[in-house]
Structure formats: C-alpha cells, structure tokens
Design goal:
It is found in: Cell outer membrane. Its main location: membrane. Residues 378-782 form the Outer membrane protein beta-barrel domain. This protein is mostly beta strands. 7% of the residues lie in helices and 65% in strands. It folds into 2 domains: 23-117, Immunoglobulin-like; 123-808, Maltoporin, Chain A. Strand 15 (173-176) and strand 16 form a beta hairpin.
Length: 809
C-alpha cells in the first residue's frame, strides 16, 4: 500500500515539471463547387495516425475557419455538412502557423464516407471509465450484450453461477442508460443474454465511480448505453440475425423515435432465441472416513432453450424552455428451459462402486416490469434539479424435476427416485432520487443529492421426493423467507478547476442500510442495520492536448444479494449442490487508480484492498455426509493490483489495430476452521482487434481474446484455467436505401470453455470442472435505418431539454 501511494505521488510530482508545448494556428476555407464560401460547415481536426478527434469548429458566414492553440503534431482536416459529400485535406505536420488548402464540398449524399472517418475508436479511456463503442465493432453486430461483455477487456462472465467480474473483482452493478437495473444477479445475466447488441451504442466500464453513484459494487459499474435517435420527424432502425452452431441463434431488434415540437416518443422491441447445446463435466476426489480414496465424476449433456422478449417505450414532454418531464416503461420475459441427461460414476480406490443416471427438466423464467418518471428543471444555463421516481417488479420461477436411476458397480439397476424442487421469488422495488447541480463559478461546480430505496423480496423454496402419488417435503431444504430492506443515501460533490491544467473532484456519500430476513422455520435470520461514509477523489493534470494524468480514490461496499442470504438448493448430482448462506456479511473495499493518457494510448494502474470479500460460490466439503456444497461465504481479505495498457495502431489507411493488455495480481487470505490459507495468482488478459477496409463500404474485423489462469472472487479460492477465443466478421454497406449485410463467426476455434480447479488438501477438497457454454456459431445479420435523415436541427440539439432526452432514452 505505502509503495503504491509513493509511486502515485512521484508520478504526479514528476508531471508538475512538465511544461506546455508551443501552440499554433490552423486556418482554411470551405466552399461550394461555385466558389462561394459555405457557412456553418463542420470542421474536424483529426490525428492523422488514427483519425482521433482533436478539436471541432463550424465555419463562419464566409466559409472560413480558424483553429487556435493546437500543439505540434501530424493532423488532417475533415469537413462535412448535411446534403454534401465530405472532404478531407492532405495530412500535414504542424510546427508553425498552417493554412490548409481550400476544401470544396459537392452536393449529394455521402453518408458512408462520414461513417467511416467519424467512426469512434473501439476503446476510449476517460477520467473515471473505459468506453467500449459497440456500434464501432462489426463482430458485435447480431450478438447479445452478454457476448460483447465476454469479449471486453478485463470482464469475465460466469454463466453457470450468473456472475460478472471486472478486472478480477466480483460485485459489478449493471446500469442501463445510467440507471441501475436493481435486478438480482441471475436476472441481470439473463437480461444481458437476451439484449441485442444492435440496440447498444456503447458499454462503459466504471471501476472508480463518483459520489453520485450508489456505493454498492466494489468492482464498479457496467453502464450499457442504448442507441438514441434524435432526428426531427419519424426515424428508426431494424435488424435481423440468424446463426447456426450446435443449435440455432436468432436476434431481432426494431427501434423508432418520433420527435415534433415539444414531444418526443421512442420505443424498442427485441427478441432473442438460443437453442445451442451445452456440455458440463465435473469431477471431485476425496478420502472418506475409512481412508479410502473416492472419485466422483459427472457428465451433464444439456439441451437448453432460451426465449427473451424485451420492450421499452417512453415519452418526453418539454413543459417550458427550462422544464422537461419524461415517462419510461419497460418489460421483459426471459424463459429458459432445459432437458439434461447427467451420468454420474463413483469409484472407490479406482474401482467402480456405483452409477447414477439423472434426468433433469428445468424451467427458469424471469418476468420484469419497470417504470420511471423523471422531471428536470433548469434554473439557469448551468444549474438544474432532476427528480426520478422508479417502481420495479420481478417474478422469478424455477421449477425443476429430477429422475434419478441408481445402478450397482456392474451397472445393474437398483432403484429409481423422483425429486422435485420449486422456487418462487417475487421482488418489489421502489426508488426515489433527487439531484441538484450548480456551476457556482467558472471554476467550481457543486452537486448534491438524496436517494431512498425500498426493497421487498419473497423466497418460497420447496424441495422433496415423489413416492407414488405423494410428495414428501424435505424439511431441511424447504423454506419460506422474506427480506425487507431500506437504503437511505445522501451525497455531495465538488468539481474544482484549479487552472487550465489541473482539475479536482471530491465527493462524499453516506448510506444507511436496514435489512431484515425472516424465515418461517428459523424466525428472524438477519436483522442488520449499518451506516457508512464513502469518499471519492479525482485529480486530473493536463500536460497538453495529447498527454494527461488522472488519479482517483474510491471507497465501496458490496451487499449480499437475496440469493446469497436466502435458503435455496440446486442439485448437480446427489452429492453436489448449491445453497444460500443467511450469515453472509457485506464487504468493504478501498481502491486507488492512476491513469496516463497519451493521445489515444492508455496506461492505467489500480490497487484494491477488500475486507470480507463475498465469494458467491465458495466450495466446501461436508465430510460427514460426503457432500460438496457451493454457497456464498466471506473471504477474509482480497488484494488486487492491475495494470492496463491500451495501444491503438494504424498500420496503413486500410488496416487498424486496437490492443489491450491487462496484468493483475490477486491475493486471497482466508481462515477456515482456524486454519489460515493464502492464495495468489498473476493473470494476463489480452484483447486484440484488427479492422480492415477492404473496399468502399466493405470492411472486416478479427478479434482475439486470451485470459491466462486466474483467481476470481465469485468462485472463491478456485482457479480458472486459461481461456482464449477468436471471432471474425465481414460487413457490406449498400447505402441507406438497402441497408447493411454482415456475416461473422463467433468462437472460431470452439475454444471458449470454463475449466475450474480447486485443491485444498487440508479441507479434503480436490475438484475439477469444465463448463462449455459457447459453440462455434455462423451468423448472418441484416440491418437498415428508416425515416427522415435530413431534418436535423442544431438549435434544438443544443437545448437543455434535448440533453435530458438523450439521458432518458
């Protein structure tokens, strides 16, 4: 810790000795074909190496423009205007005042050119987050949001346990357009699996959130920004995808937006279907109480079917020049069914002892409805208040039937058992939130806010066996429980621009949580009330337009989910099951981060210490009953150091690369039955994306992802073996009238398999598991925009109400 603090201090101190480079002026003229100057044309100054936007301006009435205070470097100019073809200057080296040759815009649509040059970088590093511009990726087309996340740097998705981690840390909170989903983890994963990437503009990975974000989530936030359509009139888009692999995949999406005068109406519907087979393998070895080695191996051949419907619709109404009110409604239905054949074999001292065939029929259905009312009033140009009221309702059903056939060591039939489990989990959430922001002076911006969230969870679990016509409940596993939780929070933050070089942001958030869990058999299981302060701090030092340093500190909390605390049971085989833990405690983390951004290159270091880390599925062995149990548990302490390097490379004008490298060192310290164990692992994550412009309107992309062996908190002290995957795609644009056609191959080598090992001899625990969720998939996608594309109004887009609309959509 002290070494890290000293390193950050030295880097900041050294940066203070840097001095700004000399700056120069760039000027030029934009005209029509007849030679007349063209007013209000867009002028963009781009880095010639990677087309990164440096500065933008519009031309004056005579078509002239001047860009001041530009650092030395290699640039090019792009000019555009609706109804005209775009034009570009030759690349030039700026080391003195420079005058660009006159650029002439020719009438006629050239939207394809604009899309290619103005295309955002796939990855962008900002002061508090990394932005993945999904709409800039060919491979992302036709995928689900979950698949895009799985290919994102530092993100690991555990589909078996419905968990998402970021840079080795569990406890990620998922938001949609800056609003928390408040979903249980299992619902979040199913939602992302059913959400079409064609409706996503970008994904933001926020590892050190500011004070106006909830303190929940030690790994930070993943914010999914949906596409917005802000043209006047009616416009929209639609896309259809179909793929085949070990089963079929369908992803369809349609969005529309209608804006006129004071009203903006928008909506989206998406459908996702996946029927790809899965194969799980599980092996555990232990020594029984007689000292005999036992080996239990289970193979699960799963035939799942996922159907996901999602609809969002809303309306914004501008009450006045300073006030806007919005209504947003959304609903989803995710139905996952599965037929599985599980074969389990037990060996005693390497000799066959018994065989079990488990036929499993399962339905996991998540229904969700949500609503939001937002009101925003601007007191003046730089001060506003925003009020949000949310109501969310979930219904989760998970009935499962097991037919277990038992055989002896010679495979002779012995008996058959019928086991049933059912879980019904309704959830109601009400949230009220108010934020006030004011620019007190040219250098100081103040923000304050209040929030209250009221959560009500029911959990009805029934487990038992069927004997003849009778269902006999298992009293140890059957339970009805209820959780009531109240979270009250308040925050204040201040942004202080010390000068053109240094800016500071400080925040303090206080949250008070009151949780009560009652069980019909155990009475009051949890009665927990606690309050905590959560400070945040950011410091930014800008050396020049190309180089800047950012430092931050953030304190976070991870609260147990209802599934973590509530009793539930999922059987994998008669000796292996998943369960809850009512005694689980929240975890507190402190995180330090330092970033260096040079042009479009990224270097980021982060160090996190967490006490009481929640391992969602920590394995333990019940020697008395010879059962392996996966349940939520607290790990004493976790320390994670990560180093991220992002390097974009322009090989030629038709070949660009984005390379991301993440090194992380993870240390776990945990005490079990009075015995202290330490675990440590160094991990490397590599993400490389190559983009090619093969011909006009014809592009392709190749993406390679690699994760070396790693420790991860959601699987506790287990080790995840290395994972790699290759994806490729090609896309042809036929213009606005005919749309875009794309073809891609996901998991080209069919290599995306989860292999998890756990070896703790002192706990008589040695397991090895393989989960194959992914399959090589060939997918064809067609997409097209519709509506009026020429009725944009710059004046409307610049109003405060329009910014609110973008935020709500």
């Amino acid at each position: 810790m002290e070494k890290l603090k000293l390193t950050i201090l030295i880097l900041f101190t050294c940066s203070m000795y840097c001095f700004s480079q000399a700056t120069y002026t760039i000027s030029g003229l934009v005209s029509e074909a007849n030679g007349n100057g063209l007013p209000f044309a867009n002028v963009l100054l781009l880095q010639s190496s990677d087309s990164t936007l440096v500065k933008g301006i519009v031309t004056l009435n005579n078509g002239s423009y001047t860009l001041d205070n530009i650092n030395q470097g290699e640039y090019l100019i792009m000019v555009s205007m609706v109804g005209f073809q775009s034009a570009y200057s030759k690349p030039f080296n700026l080391n003195t005042a420079y005058k660009v040759e006159p650029l002439v815009l020719i009438e006629g649509e050239a939207l394809d050119e604009v899309e290619v040059v103005a295309k955002k970088q796939l990855y962008e590093q900002k002061i508090d987050r990394m932005v993945i511009n999904v709409s800039s990726s060919i491979i992302a087309t036709g995928s689900s949001a979950l698949e895009v996340l799985e290919r994102s740097p530092g993100v690991i998705v555990d589909r078996q346990n419905n968990a998402i981690s970021l840079v080795g840390k569990n406890g990620v909170v998922v938001m949609i357009n800056g609003k928390e989903s408040y979903m249980p983890a299992s619902s979040v994963v199913q939602m992302l699996q059913g959400m079409s990437s064609d409706n996503i503009e970008s994904i933001e990975l926020i590892t050190t959130p500011p004070a106006n974000f909830d303190a929940e989530g030690n790994a930070g936030f993943i914010n999914i920004v949906l596409k917005t359509l802000t043209d006047v009139g009616l416009n929209g888009s639609y896309s259809f995808s179909f793929g085949v692999g070990n089963g079929s995949v369908t992803s369809d999406n349609i969005s529309f937006n209608y804006r006129k005068n004071k009203i903006n109406i928008f909506g989206n519907y998406s459908f996702f279907r996946q029927t790809q087979g899965q194969l799980f393998e599980f092996e555990r070895r232990f020594t029984n109480e007689d000292g005999i080695p036992v080996n239990v191996a289970t193979v699960s051949d799963r035939d799942p079917n996922l159907n996901y419907h999602n609809i969002r619709s809303g309306l914004d109404y501008q009450l006045s020049d300073k006030s806007v009110i919005g209504l947003l409604l959304w609903a989803s239905d995710s139905k996952w069914t599965m037929d599985a054949t599980n074969m389990s074999r037990e060996l005693l001292n390497e000799s066959p002892n018994s065989f079990i065939e488990l036929l499993n029929k399962e339905r996991n259905q998540h229904k969700h409805f949500g609503s939001n009312i937002n009101f925003k009033h601007s007191f003046k140009e730089d001060a506003y208040i925003s009020i949000d009221l949310d109501y969310l309702k979930y219904e989760i059903e998970n009935p499962t039937n097991y037919t277990n056939s038992f055989f002896d060591e010679n495979n002779n039939f012995l008996r058959k058992e019928f086991t049933k489990s059912d879980k019904y989990n309704p959830i109601n959430i009400a949230v009220g939130k108010a934020d006030y922001s004011s620019q007190i002076s040219d250098k100081i911006k103040l923000g304050i806010g209040l929030k209250a969230a009221f959560n009500n969870f029911d959990n009805d679990v029934v487990v038992g066996t069927v004997e003849g016509q009778n269902f006999i409940e298992d009293p140890e596993l059957t339970n009805i429980s209820k959780l009531e939780e109240r979270i009250l929070a308040g925050y204040s933050s201040i942004d202080y621009t010390i000068n053109d070089i240094i800016s500071l942001q400080l925040g303090l958030r206080y949250e008070h949580t009151d949780s009560e869990l009652n069980s019909d058999k155990q009475g009051k299981v949890v009665d927990r009330a606690f309050g905590e302060f959560f400070p945040t701090a950011y410091l930014s030092y800008k050396v020049n337009d190309s180089l800047n340093f950012n430092g931050s500190y953030s304190r976070r909390i991870t609260r147990p989910t209802f599934n973590d605390m509530a009793p539930f049971v999922i059987f994998f085989d008669p000796g292996t099951f998943f369960s809850g833990n009512a005694s689980i405690q929240p975890a507190i983390s402190n995180s330090f981060k330092f970033d260096v951004n040079y042009r479009s290159m990224i270097l980021s270091a982060q160090y996190t210490i967490e006490d009481g880390t929640i391992s969602r599925f920590q394995s333990s062995f019940d020697e008395e009953n010879e059962r392996l149990v996966f349940a939520a548990a607290n790990i004493d302490r976790t320390k994670i150091f990560s180093l991220t390097l992002g390097i974009p490379i322009t090989v030629t004008h038709w070949w660009k690369m984005q390379n991301n490298f993440i090194f992380s060192n993870t240390k776990f310290s945990n005490t079990v039955d009075g015995s202290l164990s330490n675990f440590e692992k160094n991990t490397i994550n590599i993400n490389c994306t190559q983009s090619f412009t093969m011909a006009k309107n014809l592009t392709s992309e190749i993406s390679v992802n690699y994760n070396s062996p790693s420790l991860n908190s959601f699987i506790g002290t287990s080790t995840l073996k290395s994972i790699y995957g290759i994806n490729l795609g090609i896309q042809k644009k036929f213009g606005d009238k005919w749309g875009t056609l794309g073809f891609k191959v996901n998991d080209l080598m069919d290599s995306m398999k989860w292999e998890v090992t756990n070896s703790v001899p002192e706990q008589n625990l040695n397991t090895n598991s393989t989960f194959d969720f992914m399959n090589r998939t060939f997918m064809l996608t067609y997409s097209r925009n519709f509506g009026n594309k020429k009725l944009k109004s710059a004046r409307e887009r610049d109003t405060g109400a329009e910014e609110e609309k973008k935020r709500l959509n």
